[in-house]
Amino acid sequence: GDSVTQMEGPVTLSEEAFLTINCTYTATGYPSLFWYVQYPGEGLQLLLKATKADDKGSNKGFEATYRKETTSFHLEKGSVQVSDSAVYFCALYPSGGYNKLIFGAGTRLAVHP
Amino acid sequence: DVKVTQSSRYLVKRTGEKVFLECVQDMDHENMFWYRQDPGLGLRLIYFSYDVKMKEKGDIPEGYSVSREKKERFSLILESASTNQTSMYLCASSFRGTNGYTFGSGTRLTVV
Description:
The complex is a heterodimer. By secondary structure, chain A is an all-beta fold. Chain A has no helices and twelve strands. In chain A, strands 2, 5, 6, 10, 11 and 12 form a six-stranded mixed sheet that branches. In chain A, strands 3-9-8-7 form a four-stranded antiparallel sheet, with no helix packed on it. Chain A has a two-stranded antiparallel ribbon with strand order 1-4. Chain A is globular and about 45 Å long. The N and C termini of chain A lie far apart (41 Å). By secondary structure, chain B is mainly β. Chain B has strands spanning 4-6, 10-13, 19-21, 23-25, 31-38, 42-49, 56-57, 64-70, 73-78, 87-94, 102-103, 107-111. In chain B, strands 2, 5, 6, 7, 10, 11 and 12 form a seven-stranded mixed sheet that branches. Chain B has a three-stranded antiparallel sheet with strand order 3-9-8, with no helix packed on it. In chain B, strands 1-4 form a two-stranded antiparallel sheet. Chain B starts with a strand and ends with a strand. The A-B interface holds A 32, 34, 36, 41-46, 49, 51, 89, 91, 93, 98-101, 103-106 and B 4, 6, 33, 42-43, 45, 48, 50, 58, 90, 92, 97-106, 108.
């Protein structure tokens, strides 16, 4: 069945470092892809999305490109801040019909000053 | 912006109590969902609903039920709370899944 695999955390970075969180997926057709962020004690917030191959989603300095050929949707940010410390979830919505979002396990990011 | 409001941020209940977790959304979304989130287990879907009075079991429905009498409100019911239901509960809604879900802030439930 459809699935999402994220790199295991925690990821620990210094402020202003470059961030990559890897996400790969297994799905038929052309799913929609998402990154969500969860700050401590909060619910999930949609960070960015892409609905077709080669689309780039971006928000708050974060970017991810929908790569059909490598079935990937890696999250990147050029310069992280302490306030980016959170758990990041990759998710996919399968194509066709009534489906549900499929989430990865989440990757915790800790940014130190 | 779409808002999904969960009635309580923190809740402490006793074993055996009947517990109601309420969720309301204000954007006329058809689809609503209840998840629980536990360390190391990620997000697990309990129940979902694609329309009023309609409900479908998710991956872990045992010990829970739901009610959706109005489109904007989706309630999760713990019929007889147990300590293993201590968790963070997240409600979400969507219009189309391709737009993603909007989540509430969560309810941290402790059963003692």
